[in-house]
Amino acid sequence: MVIQSAALNTRCARCGKSKMLTDGTTGERFCGGCGFVINEIVNDLGPERQSFSKEQFEDRSRTGVPTSLAMHDMGLATVIGQANKDSTGKPLSASMKNTITRLRTWDNRSQVHEATERNCRQAFSELSRLKDKLALSDAVVEKTAYVYRKALEKGLAKGRSIPGLIAAALYLSCRETGTPRTLNEVARRINVKKKDVSRCYRLLLQELDMTMPVLDPIKCMSRIASESGLSEKVKREALKILEQANKKEISAGKDPMGLAAAALYLSCVIHGDNTTQKVIAVAAGVTEVTIRNRYKGLRELLDIQIPDKKSKLD
Fold first, then answer.
1. Separation CA 305–CA 56 (nearest Å)
2. pTM
């Protein structure tokens, strides 16, 4: 197969033309006009693949998984395959087969032999479950693994539960990356008491000397509206309310989830939506009292006028 190399503008040294062609089989790059060979071997810039099977040209399997902090060995462990064949595909002799089987057994036994690696293996197994349950991105998972490894280096895991510490690291990563996940939600998904997770969270902040940014209530609003089944016009009105609250610095010191839930309920009242406070409170993970208090504060400070028939609280 011959491919025209449009990206390579090197002109032919013999005829001066710039029609460079590449032979995909031999790897030669030559002039399309006179046939003069420019390079005999061209490096393959595609994905790195390797296969030792008989169908070498049809098997497009990768050489391995990418490295990741969320793996106890970072994806750098040695793996001895199960196929008792050499690199050319020939079967191994009986003595070599026994040797490889023994090596494979000891390789599996030596994967996790230190306490730190066993700890990471259990913690990152819990993190993998949380990733699916909370629909987290790879960036949040990698950040969580980084924070947890830092905590292990400082010896913070001694005397503390692994699920509680990994949940605290996950909540810290969500706060730092701006991912709207509450402490109650993280603790409930991993089946650990909120008190234990919050205690580990405060310990990580203190020992790792980290400061958390304030979560923007606008980022929380879309998630609450989706779980509550609210319309698009209600979300747009709530977005305007939150933008006004941020400009007047009303949101300072307030719980972002509670403020976003109150803005959504206020928008529902303005548009005549019959969604109750309880539905929004359950979606936001706050109490109805919090929504009522924030609702009254937004109405008074933003001077929002609502007809009496729509201003009654549920």
1. 73
2. 0.62
